[in-house]
Amino acid sequence: MADWPTVKYKEEGMREGMQIEDANISVADKVKLLDALSETGLNQIVVGSFVSPKWTPQMERIDEIVTQFTPKPGVTYTALALNSRGVERARAYSPPLTIERDGYPRLTCHMCDVFVRRNTNRSQMAEMERWPQIVAQAQELNIKEAGIGTNASWGSNFMGEFPVDALMTMLEKQHSMWDEVGIDVRSVSMGDPMSHCTPAKVEESVYRVKEKWPEVNHIRLHLHNGRNMAIASAYAAMRTLGPDDTLELDGTIGGFGGCPYCGNGRATGMAPTEDLLHMMEDMGIPTGVDIDKLIDCVWMAEDIMGRELYGHVSKAGPRPKTVDKLYDMNAPFVETMEQAKHFKKGPEVYEGGIYPYNEPITSPYRDRVEEGTPAYDGPSGDFPWKQDWFPAKD
């Protein structure tokens, strides 16, 4: 088994998801969903954004949501604030909100000058002009460790692909500014708002960061999923990092979400939380999250939105690994999405389906499993390798 990094996961559905949905979704529905998410075992949840309702009307009633939801002890609730005014609005609700701090003073900028102009009404150059001020403030506060980072790290819908060499050069420029004042860089952040991540690019980027700066032990990835690469890219990062590293990841239940500035709208999406955490659990990375409760949240969100979302585990169910979760051998055909929900809703959803079998299905393998024995013995065992009916015996 691989020695995985520590993975910290943040649920972004109430922000990334809701910011591209109908602005008329009720506060009551949002509070209901937020409270349900709080009961899943997630320990970091973003509740929304303190931003201008002129441009993001979906967040106009964020104050009501924050005052009406039920905080759960042990869960950290944060909200996005893009400027000092937003931060001050958020401070009025702390607690229950935690006023998010990166943990490191960070030099960062967008690789795509067009996107940052569309998204924040300022240029890449304007972002970089702030770097000396950030460094000076860190010196004044006697900060010892810092971070660097990029957004639109691997490409842009408006400027095309960016080679990893360009990403590394940008990070090196930032790193050198911290080097000049004797502040160590421990964290690297890479964002991908326009879904240009691929497993190969993420793996190469993380590998080269670690190769060049072995002391960096904290990687943040914000991966969008418009081209269905986010989970594979997150996996590539996990494979590249080691047990002394920490990897921060974001996603949304059902994979919903989007950005009105990137040109893909709701198609932008994010990694579906239930799919990503289901994979991590299978890899032996504990999440502390109840996948069954997450699926309930996805179904609740689908009811609120009035459409299916984009995840898979919420439709097909987690892989059945225990006897009580195995499917009925003699179930009829399961054809529709609603019938597929029998993994939670029970056999009632497929009653009356086509049943083509003349006799009930039986299997010696299934018998073993139901008795608590593995379906297959190891290579030196008896079943099925040494059974009379097995065609190739020793």
SSE diagram, text form:
Layout: E1 6-11, H1 13-17, H2 27-38, E2 44-50, H3 62-68, E3 76-81, H4 84-91, E4 106-110, H5 113-120, H6 124-129, H7 131-140, E5 145-151, E6 155-156, E7 160-161, H8 164-180, E8 184-192, H9 199-212, E9 218-223, H10 230-240, E10 246-251, H11 273-282, H12 291-305, H13 313-316, H14 337-340, H15 342-345, H16 364-370
Parallel strand pairs: 1-10, 2-3, 4-5, 5-8, 8-9, 9-10
Antiparallel strand pairs: 6-7
Description:
The chain is of the alpha/beta class. It folds into two domains: 6-316, Alpha-Beta Barrel (TIM Barrel); 323-361, no CATH class. 36% of the residues lie in helices and 14% in strands. It has helices at residues 13-17, 27-38, 62-68, 84-91, 113-120, 124-129, 131-140, 164-180, 199-212, 230-240, 273-282, 291-305, 313-316, 337-340, 342-345, 364-370, and strands spanning 6-11, 44-50, 76-81, 106-110, 145-151, 155-156, 160-161, 184-192, 218-223, 246-251. The strands form three sheets. It has a six-stranded parallel beta sheet. Helix 9 packs parallel to helix 10 (230-240). The longest helix has 17 residues, at 164-180. 37% of the residues are buried.
List keywords for this structure.
394 residues, alpha/beta, globular, six-stranded parallel sheet, 16 helices, 2 domains, two-stranded parallel ribbon, TIM Barrel
Q: Major sheet, described briefly?
A: 6 strands, parallel
Strand content: 5-15%
Run of helices and strands: EHHEHEHEHHHEEEHEHEHEHHHHHH
- Report the strand count: 10
The radius of gyration is 24 Å
* Highest CATH level, the class of the largest domain: Alpha Beta
Low-confidence stretches: none
| CATH fold category name of the largest domain | TIM Barrel
Quick check: average pLDDT?
93
Which class do the helix and strand fractions yield? alpha/beta
Global shape: globular
Percent of residues in helical segments?
25-40%
How many structural domains are formed by the residues? 2
User: Count of helical segments?
Assistant: 16
CATH superfamily of the largest domain: Aldolase class I
Strand order of the largest sheet: 1-10-9-8-5-4
Distance between the termini: 31 Å
CATH architecture of the largest domain: Alpha-Beta Barrel
